[in-house]
Amino acid sequence: MKILLNKSDLNEAIKGISNLGFVPTMGALHKGHFSLIKKSKKVCKKTIVSIFVNPTQFNNKKDFIKYPRNLKKDLINLSKLKVNYVFIPKKKIIYETKRKKRLSIKNKEKILCAKFRKGHFEGVIDVMDRLTNLIKPKKIFMGKKDYQQIIFVKKFVEKKYNCKIIPCETVRDKNGMALSSRNLLLSKNNLNKAGNIAKEIINLKSLLKKKKNKKIFLEKKKGQIENFFKIKFEYLELRNQKNLKISNTSKQSKIFISYYLNKVRLIDNF
Ligand code: AMP
User: Fold this and answer.
1) Per-residue pLDDT reduced to its tens digit, 92-117
2) Pairing state of beta strands 139-143 and 253-261?
3) Which of 33, 69, 82, 94 is the most exposed, fewest CB within 10 Å of its CB?
4) Contact residues of ligand 1, CB 6 A cut-off
5) For residue 80, how far is its CA from the centre of ligand 1 (angstroms)?
6) CA angle 146, 179, 31 (to 5 degrees)
7) What is the per-residue pLDDT across 56-81, written as a single tens digit (0 to 9) for each?
């Protein structure tokens, strides 16, 4: 496994590789990340993983500072997985060049996380543009746990580069909650709570199938779950999985949720 810290090492390593799979990450790697890596290794000749905690996608400085980092352990795991390359750039390498025109998202796209995390997806698109431009992968493997992120990146990156985004299934803990680097910031109690909330939403999704007025049922259930678990959802919404429009049918739809546990923001979709 080669560790690449700058552009010239990167260029040297990847030159001539036509079928390169790329897994972008912010580190503190877990089995969710590993599943993307395994998928890439299966379908691509070589696999490169990036570890970069991208400051521009954090709308809250404290969140950036306390974001889990565990480079030593990450490198051990990546080496065990027999990843070909790990790209660990410093901020100045990624943001060397200034953008002529600021990236923006449309008002009608400011839903779900885009509504609650101002500037977040602009930061995600910016860094994905820069990383894709440097790495020039054939395929980029991304997790459906961050569903809205896939939609934004797909729209931008596939249009600009000869590259395909490959959405991968969410890996969950035994208790049902989606694995996430941020879970390292949660107490055992809160991990249990998040597992139980995930189970409630899975149950809600199946109950919803038989309900005529899904909107009213969802609102009622949302309130009940909030009261029971003493949480407040930023959103709990049923949306079409293709275009993310609010949905009144269970077909082709997912329940999207976001809430905080002890100041840690969790998102998921079912
Ligand atoms: P992150 O390091 O959190 O920025 O995530 C890097 C990539 O891993 C993104 O494409 C995420 O969607 C994906 N990912 C994170 N958690 C999971 C999970 N539990 N299952 C599958 N993919 C995941």
Assistant:
1) 999 999 999 999 999 999 999 999 99
2) unpaired
3) 82
4) 25-26, 32-33, 35-36, 142-143, 145-146, 168, 170-171, 178-181
5) 19
6) 105
7) 999 999 999 999 999 999 999 999 99
